[in-house]
Structure formats: C-alpha cells, structure tokens
Design goal:
Heme Oxygenase, Chain A, mainly alpha, globular, 14 helices, single chain
Length: about 325
C-alpha cells in the first residue's frame, strides 16, 4: 500500500488473462512490437474476456503497465484488433439502446427526464443502509479502475469541441483536476479513500479481479473518447455521469460513517456531493445542450451516450448486488 498523500505513481503489472481474446493481447504486450495480422477468437462482447482485452488496449493510451513497450500504443495490428472488438462492443450496446430521434433544442431537458425515469438498482442505497466494510472495500476496488484516472477519459473531448460547449467542459474538468491543487484532484482523493480502507492505491492494482460488468463501464468512456466521431456520446455520458453523482455520493459517505470510517475515507464522496450538484446543470445545458444546438446532427448521439451510461451502470450494480445477496464476492477473485 502506498504511503504518499497523492495517487501512487507505481504502475501495476499486467493481469492474467480471462480467456482467449485477452490472452492474445497479453501475449503481444509481453513481447516487443510489431505484431502481424491477428485472428480474433469469438467471445461475448460484454464478457470478462473481451472487456479485459479492450481495457488492456485502451490503457496503453493512458499510463500503461509496468514493463510494456510504449510502441504498442500505435501498433497497426493491435489497433486493428481493438477496432474489431470495439465494433462488436458498440453493436451490442446499440442493440440494447437503439438510437432515437432527438430535438436538438430540447437535449438538456431530455437528459433530466431520462435521469428521473431511470429505475436501475441502487448500490448507494444498499451501501448506505446495510453494506458491510468488506462490501465497501470490494466496491472501491471495482471503482478504482475508473476513479484513479477520473476525468482523463472525458478530457479526450476537449480538443474535439469548440465555443460554449468547450468552455462548459473545461469548467467541469477544472474541478475534477483539483482547481490547481494536486492534492484535491478527484483521483488523488479516491486514492486517499483506498488507503483509508487498506487497499492498494496503484492504478490497475485490481484489474486482475475486475469482471466484465465493471470493465465495460470504463471501456465505454475510453471507446467514446478515442473516437472523434463519438464526441457527442462522450458528452452525453459525462452529462449523465455528473447528473447522477451527487445523491449517490452522499449515501456512500453516510454508509462509511455508519461503519465508523473517518474523513480520509469519506473526503472523496463528500467532495462530489457539492461539486457534482453544481456540475449537473452545467453538464446538461451548457455542455450537452450547447453542443446539440451548435451541431444538431450530434443530438441523438448525445442522448445515446447518456442512456448507455445508465444501462452499463445498471448491469454493474446488478452484478454486485446479486453476488452479495448470494454471499459471494462480486470480484473475479477475493481481495
């Protein structure tokens, strides 16, 4: 466990494979580029194997893994493999959440309507009322795959936007990155929560434990962020992410206090109660609404990004709650 006050700079090693697709990617990353043309085994797009393979590919564009040659980031054969997996991933999501016509002038209000009608299972209510400390530790381990790089995937949108929408995005991201205070970056606050709960705060330390339901929630943001053509969906995702954050984070903080945890454990969640209450209107109207008005053809994709975010979060919550109800770990292997 790291002893520093900020996020650990140590990089975790590569995890073991979850099946033949992730094994193929890992075999490459353990070697030196370049790769030759790759034949991809068939696998479930939302399953552990494909989602781990995608995560490994995407992580090369962030801070990667210990011992991996940086030239893999732009290897053509690996990019082709990632593209094939992405197409299957998007096809599955679009089948579950078919695009629908959207009035570009009504996107902000529509996002609030979608949020109000969301009936997905609530992890925050469960953890506030009766979650155990072990379940909280599992939840935090799951979330570490995103929260230790919080804001980075959405920041891919910055160079892809202009005008009022860009300004709104930067207003949100400034808070995410601590408004000039490194120790208040949301990723650093989450690392502090991990240390308070006795967890390893290195990025990807729990990748080996993460199921596909968890990885899909993170991979979606990277898949949208790395494609300029999906910038509308990335903005919709961020808007809904901010709109559905404040109340759940209040519940997480209350649940941790119920279990006797101190401010080091709750600081991350307390910060989001205030910050995201401010962000939700900026994200819905100034960011998503302005983008839809300036580029009407993106309106449907903005709404798709919001809806698919809720869809994958519901799958994630259901996975954890079902496992805990059965008295087993929600991770692929116990902490």
């Amino acid at each position: 466990m790291a002893a520093t006050e900020e996020i650990s700079t140590d990089r975790a090693p590569l995890p073991p494979p979850a099946g033949p697709v992730s094994e193929l990617v890992l075999d490459l990353l353990w070697s030196k580029p370049p790769a030759t043309a790759l034949s991809i085994p068939e696998a479930e797009p939302l399953g552990d194997d494909v989602q781990l393979a995608l995560y490994l590919c995407y992580e090369l564009h962030y801070r990667s893994f210990a011992g991996v040659d940086p030239d893999w980031e732009w290897d053509p054969a690996l990019l082709a493999l990632r593209g094939a997996l992405e197409r299957a991933f998007f096809a599955t999501l679009e089948e579950a959440m078919p695009p629908r016509p959207v009035d570009p002038d009504n996107v902000g209000d529509l996002l609030f309507e979608i949020e109000a009608n969301d009936d997905g299972p609530s992890l925050s209510r469960y953890l506030r009322r009766k979650g155990t400390l072990d379940q909280f530790r599992e939840f935090v381990a799951h979330r570490s795959l995103y929260q230790l790089k919080e804001a980075d995937p959405h920041s891919w949108a910055i160079p892809r936007l202009t005008g009022a929408a860009k300004s709104a995005l930067l207003e949100v991201q400034e808070d995410e990155y601590g408004a000039g205070r490194p120790e208040r970056m949301h990723s650093a606050l989450f690392a502090k929560t991990m240390r308070a709960l006795g967890l390893d705060d290195r990025e990807n330390a729990y990748l080996r434990c993460a199921p596909g339901a968890t990885l899909a929630t993170v991979n979606l943001i990277s898949a949208l962020g790395l494609r300029g053509s999906r910038r509308g969906a990335l903005v919709g995702h961020l808007a809904m992410f901010e709109m559905t954050s404040s109340r759940p984070n209040r519940r997480y903080a209350e649940g941790l206090r119920r279990l006797g945890c101190d401010g080091d454990a709750t600081d991350f969640y307390d910060e989001h109660v205030e910050a995201d209450a401010v962000h939700e209107n900026i994200a819905a109207f100034d960011l998503a609404g302005e983008l839809a008005r300036s580029e009407p053809r993106l309106a449907a994709d903005i709404v798709f990004g919001a809806r698919v975010m809720l869809h994958l979060e519901a799958r994630f919550a259901a996975h954890l709650l079902e496992a805990w109800s059965a008295g087993v770990t929600s991770l692929r292997e116990p902490l």
